[in-house]
Amino acid sequence: AMEGCVRDATGLDEKDAELITHIARNAAEALGGVEDYLLTRACNEHASPEQKELLLDCLYRVAAADGTVSIAEDDEIKQIGSALLIPHARVMDVRANHRDELEVLRDLPS
Questions:
Q1: d(CA 57, CA 50)
Q2: What are the backbone angles phi and psi of residue 102, rounded to the nearest 5°?
Q3: DSSP designation for 67
């Protein structure tokens, strides 16, 4: 799912998208979250609001790869949106695109 998000967002071919996601996974494992603030600061300095929203959309797509965005995944993505200084209403707009996969909504009575 990550490779598909990278391809869709960047227009890279499959091989390059796989390489980018491999690098990202290795960096995440090596850093273990210690450098999260550096990443969010860099995103806030260099990414446009549209790029940050596209990142959130990719996070929801990856979280939904198994068919469900868990409550924990949803909460984490919303926190990332906040750290990226995306207005709450815009985070909710991105989230709404994935409402069918949200576990929290599946648990509501019909």
A1: 10
A2: -75, 120
A3: S
| Residue of higher predicted confidence among 91 and 26 | 91
pTM for the whole structure? 0.75
Q: How far apart are the first and last CA of the chain?
A: 30
**Per-residue confidence (pLDDT) for residue 17, from 0 to 100:** 76
**What does the DSSP assignment read for 49-104?**
HHHHHHHHHHHHHHHGGGS-B-HHHHHHHHHHHHHTT--HHHHHHHHHTTGGGBHH
Distance of CA 61 to CAs 26, 30, 42, 77, 89, Å? 20, 24, 23, 11, 19
Q: Given pLDDT bands bounded at 50, 70 and 90, which one contains residue 74?
A: very high
Q: Is the dihedral of CA 9, 14, 16, 18 positive or negative?
A: positive
